[in-house]
Amino acid sequence: MEAATSFIPEINNYKIPDVPHIRLRTLNTDNTFFEVFKLQFVSGDMQQPLLTEFNLVLTESVAITLFGDVEKAIGQQIQSTFYFFHPPYTVTAVVKDPPANTNLPFDTLLNFDFGISTESEEIHWVQFFFPCVFETQCSYRHSPICRRAS
Q1: Which of helix, strand or coil describes residue 109?
Q2: Using CA atoms, how far apart are residues 25 and 10, in angstroms rounded to an integer?
Q3: Residue-wise over 56-67: b if at least 16 C-beta within 10 A, else e?
Q4: Percent helix, strand and coil across the chain, each rounded to 5?
Q5: 3-class secondary structure, 95
Q6: Is residue 74 within 8 Å of residue 80, measured between CB atoms?
Q7: Are 94 and 43 in contact (CB under 8 A)?
Q8: Residue 25: alpha-carbon gap to chain centroid
């Protein structure tokens, strides 16, 4: 296996000072997402944009819609109206929009701690519902999966 990631998709409601209601398709994930999905960065932290809690990555179209420019989006804060008890999220990067034909549409990527290093092993057995994606190389030519992939 070359890389793996987990994410939780949800529709979340946000606000900024000038716009009281914004509905965005959110993927709660971490930096491993960028190891599996090779997104094109437009602006901001391209190395570890989801390094700390409450970091947020926007798509290019959302950044332009909300802030007028991708460069102006960096450092801006967006408040969740659903998770109102969280402090505002900080935009750390902007990526190109996913293709229209994707089966994983998103407007924003939000840092989410899956508790891998801090939780006991038992907690991972209840987290089976998190979608996971694995990137592998097919090395066994007789495998039906590898033949289909090549």
Answers
A1: strand
A2: 6
A3: bbbbbebbbebb
A4: 20, 35, 45
A5: strand
A6: no
A7: yes
A8: 10
Give the pairing type, strands 108-111 and 19-29. parallel
Strand partners of residue 41: 95
Identify the residue whose tokens are 């804060």: 77
Q: What confidence score (pLDDT) does residue 123 get?
A: 45
Q: Which residue has the tokens 């996971």?
A: 132
**What span, in angstroms and rounded, lies between the C-alpha atoms of 141 and 126?**
35
pLDDT in tens, the chain (150 residues): 677 888 889 999 999 999 999 999 999 998 889 988 999 999 999 999 999 989 999 999 999 999 999 999 999 999 999 888 889 999 999 999 999 998 899 999 999 875 544 444 444 444 445 555 555 555 555 555 444 444
Report the length, in residues, of the chain: 150
Tokens read off for 84: 């109102």
Tokens linked to 95: 């990526």
